[in-house]
Each structure stands twice: as structure tokens, then as C-alpha cells.
Design brief:
The structure is a single chain. By secondary structure, the protein is mostly helical. The chain has a domain of 46 residues. It has 3 helices and no strands. Keywords: Plasmid.
Length: 67
């Protein structure tokens, strides 16, 4: 019985704290940003900042508003 109560409490906590679980769109944006950081870390001299910014603007029209 104690196990069931513990799971139930954690599920309630998750529902009460939705900010701990970001919406899918934010998760996708974060994943893209992390991929760009990884790309830069692998080869900083080959990283094209203009191309990166154009790609961000194309995938997320409100990109400049988030900065």
C-alpha cells in the first residue's frame, strides 16, 4: 500500500508543477540549441554563425524576440 501512495503523490506533484515539464515546443528548441553547441564544440572554425542564425530564424520566426 505504501508504494501506491508514494506513486500517487509523485503523480500529483507532477501535475501541480507543470513548469518542471516544459511543453514539447520548448523541448524541441532546447534540443536544437544543444545540437548547435555540440556542432560548434566539434569544429569551432567550421561553424558558420550567419547560417546558424538564418536556420534559427527559419525554424522559429520569433527567435529574435527570445534573445
Amino acid at each position: 500500500m505504501a508504494g501506491r501512495r508514494t506513486r500517487s503523490r509523485s503523480m500529483v506533484r507532477a501535475l501541480k508543477a507543470p513548469d518542471l515539464y516544459p511543453p514539447r515546443r520548448q523541448t524541441e528548441d532546447l534540443r536544437r540549441a544543444l545540437n548547435a553547441v555540440g556542432e560548434f564544440a566539434r569544429s569551432p572554425e567550421a561553424f558558420d554563425l550567419d547560417e546558424f542564425l538564418a536556420r534559427q530564424e527559419a525554424t522559429n520566426p520569433a527567435f529574435w524576440e527570445t534573445l
